[in-house]
Amino acid sequence: MKNLTLFILFAFACSFIRGQEVHKNRVVILTDIEADPDDTQSLVRLFLYSNQIDIKGIVATTSCWHTSVVNPESIEKVIEAYGKVQPNLLKHEPGFPDAKTLSMLVKSGLPKYGMTGVGEGMDSEGSDWIIDILEEDDERPLWISAWGGVNTLAQALFTIEKTKSKKEAKRLISKLRVYTISDQDDSGIWIRANFPDLFYIVSPGDDYASATWTAINSYVKGIDNATISNRWIAENIQQNHGPLGAIYPDVAWGMEGDTPSFLGLIANGLNDAGHPDWGGWGGRYELYIPDFSKTKDGGSIVTIAPEKRAIWTNAIDSYSPYIAGEYGRSVKRDTVSFVNDKVTLWRWRDDFQNDFAARMYWCIRSYDEANHPPVPVLSHPDQITVKSGENFSLDAFETTDPDGDSFSFLWFNYPEAGTYKKMIKVNGAENVHSVNFTAPVVTKTETAHFILRVTDKGEPQLSRYKRVIVTIIPN
User: Fold this and answer.
1) Are residues 146 and 28 both part of a single domain?
2) How many domains does the chain have?
3) Nearest C-alpha neighbor of 197 from the set 211, 178, 215
4) Exposed end of the chain (fewer CB within 10 Å): N or C?
5) DSSP state of 375
6) 393 with 309, same domain?
7) Secondary structure letter of residue 97 according to DSSP
8) For the chain, what percent of residues have pLDDT higher than 70?
9) Which pLDDT band, with edges at 50, 70 and 90, does 359 fall under?
10) Which residues pair with 447 in a beta bridge?
11) Same domain for 251 and 398?
12) Are 154 and 118 spatial neighbours (Cβ–Cβ below 8 Å)?
């Protein structure tokens, strides 16, 4: 009976994932692998989500730290380790590609730095591959996740502009979405200046301390930072988790600085890649022309120049964490608050680190020995309209967990994600399946985002979300 129950739960989980496949984001990775061990770290995590993210290419590139060589063989080494655990990953969720399929996606850019590798005669298998993927009969956007320099993308754009009609070039470029981990060569500013309509997420310049993505590995005073500690990494990723974990290198400069560029592509109920201003695992970003005239030189050879157009860049959240209550209500707001751009990313850090750890266990454990995320289910649409001053309820009574674990609810308003910027508090307890809110009095139509976070009590604890967008109209 136990085995039959587990089989039914697994079949349900598989059908749920298959239902999400149409929403998988396409991505091409540009990596200056071997410039820093963190690229290898990020590849390990990426392959654990290769059933939820449609990886279309992995291109070895240069950067300001790695100016004259590319290392596709280092990508292959991680793929080889992944291939050894891929059969076991399929016991937990469907859709993990085999190692041979991933190896066919490995390409190289030119071993040239920045704009010295852009122009006539500078095409590479990497730049050609980006164009080939763009020309596929697939209307989904193509994300370029840049972990190093972006001259391979710059060359693809150069070639498109030179060889395609204006109409076709516009069509192809409109499908591109770029998230680059700061500027790691001088082609980034060239791209943004010459392709003003290109969707581009970046903290400009090479001053990493000012970049949102650094929150993935930043020590934050006033919170528990255990899940980014070297001890946690050793115990939960590197040791006794199979060959993929064993290949995860020690931290040298910073843990997984490139990972935020694809965290927002994972289907978890919170992320919406097309709306960076809504916030998610990869951080939150707003569209504006930043003033980086006083940006500090981070010490690389990247040219810092003023932005001439609006880009998706650093945004600020005000955040007070929820903490466990020893007695009575199980959660309560902490007395400390944080207000900065880094908050937009690290506020989810324990969740995505625990998720990573759980998937590392998938590499070596059977289905019934591992933990799997809960499945939040709303009792109503995820977009509703209410009147100014009206009470409304949100409910997730039908939520389940594939392992039969107990789970906890947490509802909260995310003011920065909507147009109504003041916090709308829950009327009563926020940790029950059904909650009630009172819409604020408004004089014009506003939107407010409400997040449901469901966390199971398995090991490690896993969280999934639902986002409800409430439109508030005046009376």
Assistant:
1) yes
2) 2
3) 178
4) N
5) B
6) no
7) P
8) 94
9) very high
10) 471
11) no
12) yes
280, two tokens: 């998610």
Here the CATH number for the domain that contains residue 462 is 2.60.40.10
Terminus-to-terminus CA distance in the chain, angstroms? 56
Give the residue from 287, 304, 315 showing the smallest Cα distance to 212: 315
Instruction: Say whether both 287 and 385 belong to one domain.
Output: no
pLDDT band at residue 4, thresholds of 50, 70 and 90?
very low
Interval 67-92: pLDDT, tens: 999 999 999 999 999 999 999 999 99
| Residues ≥6 apart with Cβ < 8 Å to 239 | 245, 246
pLDDT surpassing 50 at residue 171 = yes
Residues 225 and 301 in one domain: yes
Q: Please tell me the pTM assigned to this model.
A: 0.94
Query: Residue 132: how many CB atoms within 10 A of its CB?
Result: 13
Residue 377 tokens, joined = 């289910």
**Residue partners of 275: CB distance under 8 A and separation at least 6:** none
- CA separation for the pair 303, 340 (Å, rounded): 26
Which of 466, 471, 201 is CA-nearest to residue 341?
A: 201
User: Which positions ≥6 away from 368 have C-beta within 8 Å?
Assistant: 6, 403
Q: Sorting pLDDT into bands at 50, 70 and 90, what band is 383?
A: very high
Q: Which residue has the tokens 């763009």?
A: 134
Domain that holds residue 405: 374-475
CA dist., res. 332 & res. 410, Å (int): 10
Q: Read off the DSSP letter of residue 88.
A: H
